[in-house]
Design a protein that fits this description.
Chain B: Keywords: ATP-binding, Nucleotide-binding, Transport. The structure holds two protein chains of two kinds. By secondary structure, chain A is an all-alpha fold. Chain A is 75% helix and 1% strand. Chain A contains eleven helices and two strands, in the order ααββααααααααα. In chain A, helix 1 packs across helix 6 and helix 3 runs antiparallel to helix 6. The model of chain B has no long low-confidence stretch (mean pLDDT 87). Classes of the chains: A mainly alpha, B alpha/beta. The interface between A and B is medium-sized, with 27 and 35 residues.
Chain lengths: 269, 338
């Protein structure tokens, strides 16, 4: 269990990570703009698909609008920074400096991720509220409990996504380039989490497969809860599955790190 | 028990052997062949608390590999290490808490935020008590002249500033052991001086054990009482710096500037055993000699018999030349010295 001093240390790391994002004001504004354009593009794409149709794959246009906003939020709470920073550390060898600190590598990276996600998640929320006020027909849930469950599921989504990112980053110990790994991971995550299209649009077998994998916990779960396609009991079950995947990926990450460090410390950095 | 204790410590790596060309690359893909490369041969090392040790050797001699094993980021292939009673590889985190390290080529500062923020993060990481942190920050800021750049982010610092900040970062938690890997590489003379003064003071006041690898022989002469030379993965000398100087730095050189050329002296010197003449120009030359065989006044007196000496200066062989001779294989320190 974590002691108070350790908690303070990891909180400090998260704090510095937040400061780092703030240090790049310009890049932060550009990311903000890029995200908005991306969201607009996807919005108009789906508007085109829905023209002349009432329902696609069981989703009405109003539901789809909501789905897009939720997807956007869930996708952006885990910062872009953390997607590339961990593999970067491994590739440029600065992981050696981390090994010289009395700090658990995985927890420290998670703290960093949370720190920078706080800002980028906040930014996305602002953007979404702006969007939602100009859009008609976005369905907001009426009961408070849905919002609470949704917030919890977003947290769960962060943990699961971190697990995926972390495991993929550790693969860089064996590869000399990170781009291939990063893009493969992004493609897999986007497809199987429901970020591209809702899982309900998939052929039956692929949907079943996707539901067995951890990726669905990142987008599918929060969107099901927010769109109230899952009742309270079902929502709790989905969050439970998230927690299971979060824990499983964490343990897998730990095991893989221990193994990777052994390789590195045996073969040299 | 010594603070750093290694017995039979060695490290070898597997190295891929590829034949040249595309054919070789393809062949390696299917039939990889490796050879074992020994980086550090089994070595014994004991360092007492408070010692300042220079660990030197040519590039690729095994210096960094040894330091990495002592810091716990590299697993030894064989042998045992104990640093302050801790096996650094098995208990990496415990060991990390009691050491400070500066690797000249890398920084531990956060690149994009003010370095003072990096320092306060270290306070939380090492759980440094508030009072200790405050005292150290004041002392280090003053001694290393950091006040002008402590509020800048690391990427805005010059190399000299960054290195000073890194050194402060490594010592904030008063570690009993400090590893420095080329701490003055690429720095100007005044920064070098500041850094050496600082390390010296920390070593004297807190009895910090310092182990230093360097190519800068000024670092060694200024800082270290003990010298360990490693070459081809084996320790070839381990002893006091003054002893190595007394034993091997016995050459003295006197540089002369004379009023007119002295051909007869040159001819005479060429025949004198134990003296060596090197001519710089018609009126400038140097004579090197064994300082146990001749005295400086003997040499000067001899030159003065042949004409007017405008100016002269004397140089002792410094540690630089001794180590260079060892690297070049001209001097064998393992034997009796001859």
């Amino acid at each position: 269990m974590m002691t108070a001093a350790q908690f303070k240390m990891y909180r400090s790391i998260a704090n510095r990570s937040l400061q780092r994002v703030l240090a790049y004001r310009i890049s932060y504004i550009i990311t903000f703009l890029a995200n908005s354009i991306n969201l607009l593009a996807i919005y108009f794409l789906w508007q085109g698909i829905y023209s002349g149709r009432e329902v696609v794959g069981g989703y009405t246009w109003d539901q789809m609008k909501t789905y897009l906003l939720v997807t956007f939020l869930a996708n952006s709470v885990l910062s872009w920074y953390s997607e590339s920073a961990i593999s970067g550390k491994i590739l440029d060898g600065s992981v050696a400096v981390d090994l010289l600190k009395p700090v658990d590598f995985q927890t420290a990276r998670f703290a960093e991720t949370l720190g920078s996600s706080l800002l980028e998640g906040g930014m996305s929320t602002v953007l979404l509220i702006l969007f939602a006020t100009f859009l008609t027909g976005v369905t907001f849930p009426g009961s408070l409990s849905v919002y609470v469950l949704f917030a919890v599921s977003l947290l769960g989504a962060i943990v699961v996504k971190f697990g995926v990112v972390y495991l993929a980053a550790l693969l860089c110990f064996w590869s000399t380039g990170s781009m291939g790994i990063v893009w493969t991971r992004i493609a897999l995550t986007n497809l199987l989490s429901g970020a591209l299209v809702p899982l309900a649009f998939f052929p039956d077998w692929l949907e079943k497969l996707a539901l067995l994998l951890p990726f669905q916990a990142i987008i599918h779960t929060p969107s099901m809860i927010f769109l109230q396609q899952a009742d309270t009991g079902e929502s709790l079950r989905l969050i439970g599955i998230q927690l299971f995947w979060g824990a499983a990926l964490w343990i897998a990450g730990k095991a893989m790190w221990n193994w990777a460090v052994r390789q590195v410390t045996i073969h040299g950095g | 028990m010594s603070i750093i204790e290694a017995r039979g410590l060695s490290k070898s790596f597997m190295q891929a052997v590829k034949e040249p060309g595309l054919g070789g690359a393809v062949k390696h893909l299917f039939l990889p062949r490796h050879i074992e490369k020994v980086a550090v041969k089994p070595l014994d090392l004991s360092v007492e608390a408070g010692e300042t040790v220079a660990y030197v050797g040519p590039n690729g001699a095994g210096k960094s590999t040894t330091i990495k094993m002592l810091t716990g980021i590299l697993m030894p292939s064989a042998g045992t290490v104990s640093v302050n009673g801790i096996n650094p590889y098995k208990k990496r985190m415990d060991n990390a808490a009691q050491i400070g390290a500066v690797f000249g080529q890398r920084t531990q500062l956060w690149w994009d935020i003010p370095i003072v923020e990096s320092f306060s993060l270290l306070k939380d990481i090492y759980q440094i008590p508030g009072a200790v942190y405050k005292t150290n920050m004041e002392l280090f800021t003053e001694m290393l002249g950091m006040s002008e750049f402590i509020h800048l982010s690391a990427r805005k610092l010059s190399l000299g500033q960054r290195m000073r900040a890194d050194l402060a970062a490594a010592l904030l938690h008063n570690p009993p052991i400090l590893y420095l890997d080329e701490p003055t590489i690429g720095l100007d003379v005044s920064v070098k001086q500041k850094i050496r003064e600082f390390i010296k003071q920390i070593n004297q006041e807190q009895n910090t054990t310092v182990m230093l690898t360097t190519h800068d022989l000024g670092d060694i002469e200024d800082l270290c009482k003990r010298l360990i030379i490693i070459d081809h993965g084996a320790i070839i000398y381990d002893g006091s710096l003054s002893e190595v100087k007394a034993r091997f730095a016995k050459n003295r050189v006197i540089f002369f500037q004379v009023g007119s050329p002295m051909p007869e002296l040159y001819a005479q010197l060429a025949q004198t055993p134990g003296m060596k003449l090197a001519q710089q120009s018609a009126q400038e030359f140097s004579v090197s000699f064994d300082r146990y065989e001749y005295t400086a006044s003997e040499v000067v007196g001899r030159v003065m018999r042949y004409g007017e000496v405008v100016d002269f200066r004397m140089e002792d062989t410094n540690i630089e030349q001794v180590i260079k001779a060892v690297y070049d294989g001209k001097l064998d320190l393992t034997g009796t010295g001859e």
